[in-house]
């Protein structure tokens, strides 16, 4: 099946996973919004809340993480990335996991099908990283496995009909994705900013700040998995406040006024800002200041994770297909819409029932614009004739 490797869609991981993940994001939120409005009554295994909680993180989020990392590891190692039949098999496994929720598959089989995807992604990453002894990237593999562990916790809660365990696994997984964003954001945001604005090479980030931010990000995720975020706690408030300050210091170091003029840059900086706001929101909840914990979680999932996903997919897809790093007005619109989705979800939902529907509409339109514009790019060959 070497012919499969000649098809552009199966040459690198970002192509099928960005396309499938963004299309799934569009359909999943549309389905969720229609169910909330009472227009439809689907019956996934475990119920709609369990499905939504799992799928937006370990379905949508995991697909984009896989696509980005399976592409990036080729650059890091200089070794060929996953392609052809192995890539197709991994994508099909992910797709079966999405469909299985609405199938008659027994619950244990559903759980097993969901649980193997991320470990396989970690294995595909670990091989070239270990072969090239890229010790700086070992934490990436560990974090993917930790996210898988949180997924197993959530799936264990599904098996035991333990809603609290499902929720804890999902929240811990969300903060681990925040930790992964901390690592990857620290690599790409200052680099993209420098390249996008034609600036001179910037000095490396302060080592203590980078290490403390990562340690704090991992710390709040592990403590959440251990149950310390199940109820308000002063020590957890302190941990989240520290994380908020650290994210703010990094963002301040990366920012330069020219960022405001370049959509591929301000979209990334705004996405990272939501990490700061989510940490502040969690600190407020632990201090019992009247803020709903769900608002902080959605600041992280919709504001930080999803906005960074759209911005990264837009930039990476152009760079890895040999196209100029410029986006059309439609994609600028997608950047704006995903930010509006976050603002509406956090700022309007507590006061009006219209907030949720408007937030979902903005989300669906944002990903529809991405799919409409980028699908032809993702399944077409590079414009410069290079492989990939």
Summarize the structure.
By secondary structure, the protein is mainly alpha-helical. It is about 75% helix and about 0% strand.
Q: What do these coordinates show?
A:
The chain has one domain: Up-down Bundle (Cytochrome C Oxidase, Chain A). 75% of the residues lie in helices and 0% in strands. It has helices at residues 2-6, 14-36, 48-77, 84-100, 107-115, 117-131, 138-159, 163-197, 207-225, 234-254, 263-286, 293-319, 329-347, 354-378. The protein is globular, with a radius of gyration of 20 Å. The two termini are 17 Å apart. The mean pLDDT is 95.
Q: What is the strand content?
A: under 5%
Second-tier CATH architecture: Up-down Bundle
The domain tally reads 1
Topology, number of strands:
0
Q: Give the radius of gyration.
A: 20 Å
What is the chain-wise order of helices and strands?
HHHHHHHHHHHHHH
Question: Helices and strands: which structural class?
Answer: mainly alpha
- The CATH superfamily appears as Cytochrome c oxidase-like, subunit I domain
- Span between N and C termini? 17 Å
Regions with pLDDT < 50 over 5+ consecutive residues? none
């Amino acid at each position: 099946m070497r012919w499969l490797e000649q098809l552009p869609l199966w040459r690198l991981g970002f192509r099928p996973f960005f396309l499938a993940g963004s299309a799934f994001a569009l359909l999943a939120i549309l389905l969720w919004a229609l169910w909330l409005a009472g227009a439809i009554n689907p019956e996934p295994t475990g119920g709609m809340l369990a499905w939504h909680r799992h799928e937006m993180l370990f379905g949508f989020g995991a697909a984009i993480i896989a696509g980005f990392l399976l592409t990036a590891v080729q650059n890091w190692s200089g070794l060929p990335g996953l392609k052809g039949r192995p890539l197709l098999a991994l994508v099909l496994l992910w797709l079966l996991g999405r469909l299985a929720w609405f199938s008659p598959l027994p619950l244990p089989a559903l759980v097993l099908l969901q649980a193997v995807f991320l470990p396989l992604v970690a294995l595909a990453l670990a091989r070239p990283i270990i072969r090239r002894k890229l010790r700086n990237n070992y934490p990436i593999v560990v974090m993917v496995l930790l996210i898988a562990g949180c997924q197993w916790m959530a799936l264990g809660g599904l098996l035991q009909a333990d809603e609290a365990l499902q929720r804890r696994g999902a929240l811990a997984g969300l903060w681990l994705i925040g930790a992964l964003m901390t690592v990857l954001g620290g690599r790409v945001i200052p680099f993209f900013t420098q390249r996008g604005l034609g600036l001179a090479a910037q000095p490396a980030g302060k080592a203590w700040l980078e290490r403390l931010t990562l340690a704090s990000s991992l710390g709040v995720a592990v403590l959440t998995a251990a149950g310390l975020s199940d109820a308000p706690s002063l020590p957890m408030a302190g941990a989240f406040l520290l994380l908020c300050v650290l994210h703010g210091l990094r963002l301040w170091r990366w920012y330069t006024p020219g960022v405001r003029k370049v959509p591929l840059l301000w979209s990334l900086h705004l996405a990272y800002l939501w990490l700061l706001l989510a940490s502040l929101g969690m600190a407020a909840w632990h201090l019992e200041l009247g803020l709903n914990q769900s608002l902080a979680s959605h600041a992280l999932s919709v504001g930080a994770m999803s906005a960074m996903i759209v911005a990264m997919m837009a930039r990476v897809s152009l760079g890895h297909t040999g196209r100029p790093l410029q986006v059309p007005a439609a994609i600028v619109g997608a950047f704006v819409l995903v930010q509006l989705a976050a603002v509406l979800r956090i700022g309007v939902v507590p006061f009006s029932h219209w907030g949720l529907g408007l937030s979902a509409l903005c989300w669906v339109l944002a990903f529809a614009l991405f799919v409409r514009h980028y699908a032809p790019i993702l399944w077409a060959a590079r414009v410069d004739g290079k492989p990939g």
